[in-house]
Amino acid sequence: MADAEVIFDLSSGFAEAEEQWRALEQTGHGSPYQQFDWARAWWEHIGKHKGITPHVLRLARGDETLALLAVGFRRHLGLTVARPIGERHFNIHMPLWATGAAGRVTPGEYRRALVEACRRLGADVLCFAHQPDIWAGSSGHAAAGEAGTSSGDVYLLPLTRDFTALARARRSKRYLQQIRRKREGLAVRAGPVSFRRADDEATCARVIAEAVRHRSERRQHCGVPSFLHEAGGPEFIRDLTLRGLGAPEGRCVMAAHYLEAGSQIIATYFGSGFNGHYACFVNSFDMAYEECSPGDILLHDLIANLCSLGLGSLDLGVGEGRYKEAWCDPLPLFASTEALTPLGSIYAGSVRASGNAKRIIRNNNSLWHGWRSVRKLRAQFRSY
Asked: Which of 67, 215, 254, 264 is the least crowded, having the fewest Cβ atoms under 10 Å away?
């Protein structure tokens, strides 16, 4: 069996794969984005309406299941492009591995198996992004094609039971004093401040509605896009938060945490827990209270809560941010493109060029600030 070839065998749809996938989740290795509910809900609310055909691929050696990987196939510019389910919306792209299996498959074996499966299914090109080389101490297999640095890192924070010690190690004494003063100032302006988690359908709906409002105001003011503005985005969030009601944060498909001041929802965080790791997915804050830093207060309280629950780590997603860099360490991610046909080679070249351009802008402060200024001006112009 050890000498048998590693292959992605015949694909299936979500319905056919559900039982095996959910069983693998109980013992397997992956990020929160590799949960069955995430993949299926994303396709139902977003991917299906983009014309994406899902394929759940089973990586196997003989009769042994090594991993499951959900890939979406979509026609674009006359080609069939294969991307991980979740595409740019999911912060981590990797298989859901059986326990110990990732270490028994080389990157070369994984890549060859993936290329052959997608070629057999009719893809012209593979485009994978947000791939970790290592995730939670085990291989993430960032090996689909010619891997290069992704356009952004994911920001990780190891957690400890002692939040006070963690906060003092990560943040300055001055910052912690400021958080206390800003919390007091917010209470004076809006009423008693409390950290909460939505625990029923009505509260979930209210928190989502406020998050959409927060992000809409921010988009009008700064031009910052949000998943909540994507077609199907709010429905996706609602679907998963309702599925996560009552589940502990360490194993929750999605939780809606929020900061309440008086009777108002001032800031929100939607995230997911899997195997003791918590991934923050979407956040928001009310710009009317921006000077009180409600997002910082909520993140402070969320981290404290996760520490008290004994979770091992947290991530704040892909992309730079002052608050991310202050709390977390960056973990490099890798993007890769693999042409499977001659026509796919042309497409792959354009994808690599676009990715290189994005990295240049991100890594040059003048270009990045210039782009943000243009984005803000465009948003303000559109609001008139």
From this structure: 264
